[in-house]
Design goal:
mainly alpha, Growth Hormone, Chain: A, two-stranded antiparallel ribbon, about 75% helix, globular
C-alpha cells in the first residue's frame, strides 16, 4: 500500500495534515461560535457558513492562476503565512462592538491563504506522478494523500471540544447546548414562557439565581465565546508545524515544484512537457467541466457535516452514549484501531518474514489496547455535538487501505471503474447516506416547532443514526473526492493544471455555498425527513446525469 510512491508524497501529505487539522478544528465549532457569540438564527448562520466555505474553495482558482505564472511553491508558503495571520486574529477574543469586523477580516485572510496553499500543494502531488515510474500509482497516491488529510481532521473535533470544556470550566460553567440560544432570546426579549421556564432551570443548574438571569445570560455567552476563540488558536500551532515540515523536506519534492512556464525555461534539465492538439485540449476540458457540474451537489450535501448534521446532533440526538458506541468517542481507542488496521494490512504486504511478525505483534497490541481502553470507559459518556464530526475522518483513515486494496485488485484484473464512474457511484451512495437521516427523522418535531418548545426535543434519537450516516457518506467520499482530485491532475492540459485544480475548488466552493439552501429551509416548519429528502433527490439526479454522459467522459480521457 505504501510501496511504489515517491518520498515527496509523504512530505506534502504531512504538511497538508497540519493545515487541515487546524482548519477542521476551527470548522468543528464555527457554527456553534456564530450562534453563541452573535445569536444568529439558522438562516443567518447558514449564510455565513456557506459564503465562507464558498470563498475558501473559490480562492484556489486565483491561487492556481498565480501559481501557473509564479510557481507553486511560492504560493504555498505565502498561503501558510496569510492563513496564520487570519487564525491568529480569529483566536483573539474581541469586544462585541469590534467582534464582527474582526471575525470577517479573519475569515477573509483564512480564505485567501487557503486559496494560495491548498490547490497548489495538490498540483505538486500530481506532478510527482508525472514520472512514468509512478504514473500507474496516481489514484492510490491520492488516496493516501487524502487519508493523511483525514488524520488531521480526526483529531480536530475532540481538540476543539477539550479546549472549549477547559476554558468554560475555568469560568465555572458546564456546556449545555440549549443555553446560548435561550440566553440570546432572553436578552432580546423574544423568549416564550415555556422557553423561559427551561432557561430558569438551566441557570439554577449553573449556580445562578432566577433573579439574576441577565448576568447569567451575558456571562455564559461571553465565556463560551472566549472558549471557542481559544479553540480557533489551535490552527496557529498546526500551521507552524506544517511550514516546518514543508521547508525541512523540500528536497524530496523540489522537482515537482515546476509549472509549464518554468519547465520550458529549464533547458539544463530538459523537463518534458506534454503537448496536446486543440481537439485533445477541448475534449479534456469538456470532460472536466462535466465532472465539475456533478461535484457541486456532492459538496452541497457532504458539507452539511458542520451545519445541519451538527444541529441535528445538538438538538435531536441523545448526548448520552452507552454500550459499544462509547468507543467511537474515545480518540485514543480510535487511533489504536486505526493502527491495528494498518498493521494487519502490513502482515499481508510485508516481503520478509520478520516484517510480517512485527506487523502481527503491532496489530495484536493495538487491538488489545483498544479493548482495554474500552473496558476502562464509564458505563455512560456525555458528548458534545461537534464530536460526531470525528467519525468521518476516522472512517476515511480506516477504510482507505480497503479502498486501495479493492481497486488495486480490480485494476490487475482490468475491471477497475474509471474515475467518472467512481464519482457517479459516489453520488448514489451519498443519497443512501441521507436516506438514513430521513428514516431517523420520522416523527421528530420540525426545527420551528422545537424552537417554540424551548429548544429541547421530547424525543432524542440514538447517536448510532448519525454515526451510520457518517459511515455511508465516507464510502461516497472515498469514491469521489480523492478520485476527483487525481482525475483533475491527470486529465488537465499541462499548461492549465493550476487553473483547472483551481476550478475543482471553485465547484467545491459553489457546493459549499449551496449548503445554506438547506439551512434556509431548516427552520421553515418543513418536517425534517423532507429536508433530508431534498439532498437525496439532488444526489440521485447528479448520478443519473453523470452516468448518462459516461461514454463521452471515458472516450475523452482514454488517452490520459
Amino acid at each position: 500500500m505504501f510501496k511504489g510512491h515517491p518520498k515527496g508524497l509523504y512530505a506534502l501529505a504531512l504538511a497538508n495534515t497540519g493545515e487541515r487539522f487546524g482548519y477542521y478544528t476551527m470548522l468543528a465549532i464555527f457554527v456553534l461560535f456564530l450562534q453563541a457569540k452573535f445569536g444568529f438564527n439558522e438562516a443567518q448562520t447558514g449564510n455565513i457558513y456557506g459564503i465562507f466555505l464558498g470563498v475558501v474553495y473559490f480562492m484556489p482558482l486565483i491561487g492556481g492562476i498565480l501559481a501557473d505564472r509564479f510557481g507553486y511553491g511560492k504560493m504555498v508558503v505565502t498561503g501558510i503565512v496569510v492563513m496564520f495571520i487570519g487564525y491568529l486574529l480569529l483566536a483573539i477574543p474581541a469586544q462585541q462592538s469590534f467582534a464582527l469586523i474582526s471575525m470577517f477580516s479573519a475569515l477573509f485572510l483564512i480564505a485567501v491563504g487557503t486559496g494560495l496553499f491548498k490547490g497548489n500543494l495538490q498540483v505538486m502531488v500530481g506532478n510527482l506522478y508525472d514520472d512514468p515510474k509512478y504514473n500507474n500509482s496516481r489514484d492510490n497516491g491520492f488516496s493516501l494523500f487524502y487519508m493523511a488529510i483525514n488524520i488531521g481532521s480526526m483529531f480536530a473535533p475532540i481538540t476543539a471540544t477539550k479546549i472549549t470544556e477547559l476554558f468554560l470550566g475555568k469560568a465555572g460553567f458546564t456546556y449545555v447546548p440549549q443555553i446560548p440560544a435561550l440566553a440570546h432570546q432572553y436578552l432580546d426579549g423574544s423568549i416564550t414562557e415555556e422557553a423561559l421556564a427551561s432557561f430558569q432551570q438551566l441557570a439554577i443548574g449553573q449556580g445562578y439565581e432566577i433573579n439574576n438571569l441577565t448576568a447569567f445570560a451575558n456571562d455564559y455567552i461571553n465565556k463560551l465565546s472566549e472558549a471557542y476563540n481559544y479553540g480557533f488558536g489551535v490552527a496557529c500551532i498546526s500551521l507552524i508545524l506544517s511550514i516546518a515540515i514543508y521547508i525541512c523536506c523540500r528536497r524530496w519534492f523540489k522537482h515537482a515544484d515546476v509549472n509549464t512556464k518554468q519547465a520550458k525555461a529549464d533547458t539544463e534539465n530538459k523537463v518534458h512537457v506534454e503537448e496536446l492538439t486543440p481537439e485533445q485540449t477541448k475534449s479534456r476540458m469538456t470532460a472536466l467541466f462535466l465532472v465539475f457540474a456533478v461535484v457541486i451537489f456532492f459538496w452541497m450535501s457532504f458539507q452539511q457535516s458542520g451545519l445541519c448534521l451538527t444541529w441535528f446532533a445538538r438538538d435531536y440526538t441523545s448526548n448520552i452514549v452507552s454500550g459499544i458506541t462509547r468507543i467511537g468517542f474515545d480518540i485514543v481507542a480510535l487511533v489504536l484501531i486505526a493502527i491495528g488496521v494498518y498493521a494487519t494490512f502490513s502482515i499481508f504486504q510485508s516481503d520478509s518474514k520478520k516484517g510480517k511478525i512485527i506487523s502481527a505483534i503491532v496489530a495484536v497490541a493495538a487491538f488489545a489496547g483498544a479493548i482495554v481502553k474500552y473496558l476502562q470507559l464509564p458505563s455512560e459518556l456525555s458528548v458534545f455535538p461537534q464530536e460526531f464530526q470525528q467519525f468521518n475522518p476516522f472512517f476515511v483513515v480506516v477504510l482507505t487501505p480497503f479502498s486501495i486494496a479493492l481497486f488495486s485488485m480490480l485494476g490487475k484484473r482490468g475491471k477497475e471503474p474509471s474515475a467518472p464512474r467512481k464519482i457517479g457511484m459516489g453520488m448514489v451512495v451519498a443519497a443512501l447516506g441521507f436516506l438514513v437521516m430521513a428514516v431517523a427523522s420520522f416523527n421528530l418535531a420540525s426545527p420551528a416547532d422545537l424552537k417554540s418548545m424551548g429548544g429541547v426535543s421530547e424525543t432524542l434519537v440514538s447517536p448510532n443514526w448519525l454515526i451510520s450516516t457518517y459511515l455511508v457518506l465516507t464510502f461516497a467520499e472515498l469514491l469521489l473526492s480523492p478520485m476527483g482530485i487525481s482525475f483533475v491532475t491527470k486529465v488537465a492540459p499541462p499548461k492549465y493544471k493550476g487553473m483547472m485544480m483551481g476550478f475543482w475548488f471553485v465547484v467545491t466552493a459553489i457546493g459549499n455555498y449551496l449548503t445554506n439552501v438547506i439551512a434556509r429551509i431548516w427552520g421553515t416548519g418543513l418536517p425534517l425527513w423532507q429536508v433530508w429528502s431534498v439532498l437525496i433527490i439532488l444526489c440521485l439526479i447528479s448520478a443519473i446525469f453523470i452516468f448518462s454522459m459516461m461514454k463521452k467522459l471515458e472516450s475523452a480521457t482514454k488517452d490520459c
